[in-house]
Description:
By secondary structure, the chain is mainly beta.
Amino acid sequence: MKTHGLLSILLICILVSCINRNWPDIDGIWQLKTIESKSSPVQTVDTIYYSFQAQRLFAFTQLNGSPMQFESTFILHGYVDFPAKDRILIHIDLSKEAYFSRLPWHSGNVSYFIQKLTRKEMILENEGGDIYRFIKF
Length: 137
């Protein structure tokens, strides 16, 4: 009985030590719903997804609804860093530079301020003041 108690405590300690409390819990798939820009009306979006895994890996997915488009879907991979608890920095693989113009931020890197992050909603703000609203998919 004593051995089971010690093993339970050891297991709990290991699990708790694996949790990095310094980073926001952003892992999962997030669907972009709106982009609010100071220079234009609110843009409704339903075909763009940001995916985060292990708080390190990133994937950008765009689903295009029109069959007339050259590529109906594209996915770009990259990495994510958290320079501060309320900041996120996304780096896209530079070998996909031809697709950068199709990204909402039009380059290989983007930095966001995390305005809100819950289990179901995420609100990001870029350096230009544009607001990106996501729901957990």
